[in-house]
Amino acid sequence: MTVVAGGVPYLILGGPALYYWRRAGYHSPLSAACLGFGINAGLFAVASVVFILLEGLQDAHKVLFFAIPGFMFAMFWCAGFAFLYNRFTRLSKEVDQHDQPQ
After folding, report:
1. Which residues contact 29 (CB under 8 A, 6 or more apart)?
2. DSSP states along 3-51
3. Which of 20, 57, 72, 102 has a C-alpha 20 to 30 A away from that of 9?
4. pLDDT-wise least confident of 52-56, 62-66, 68-72, 83-87
């Protein structure tokens, strides 16, 4: 259930964030990992506040149980996206250059 519930916010917030990150001209997988960490930190803050308001402080450790792997997953996912995006765009530019007549 966590994968399904966590995937939707990552697509809604992480996808556009990576799109604008790329449009801003950033290329480094490390900067993408930092972006993923920041997005997850924002989601974690909102989820923590909502959970504490609904459930109280006695079960706040449950949020940390899901947040800690989420921080790592978000950073790896964003860094992997940046690496693959840079790799595929570089390859497509090389193919386009070879296809042009001399």
Report:
1. 78, 79, 80, 82, 83, 86
2. HHHHHHHIIIIIHHHHHHHHHTT---HHHHHHHHHHHHHHHHHHHHHHH
3. 57
4. 62-66
Count Cα neighbours of 47 within 13 Å in the Cβ-side half-sphere: 19
Does some domain include residue 95?
A: no
Residue 51, domain member (yes or no): yes
Does residue 30 register a pLDDT over 80? yes
Domain membership of residue 31 as a residue range = 27-87
In this structure, the number of other CB atoms found within 10 A of the CB of residue 33 comes to 20
> How many domains is the chain partitioned into structurally?
1
Flag whether pLDDT at 62 surpasses 80.
no
4 has a pLDDT exceeding 60: no
Residue 100 lies in a domain: no
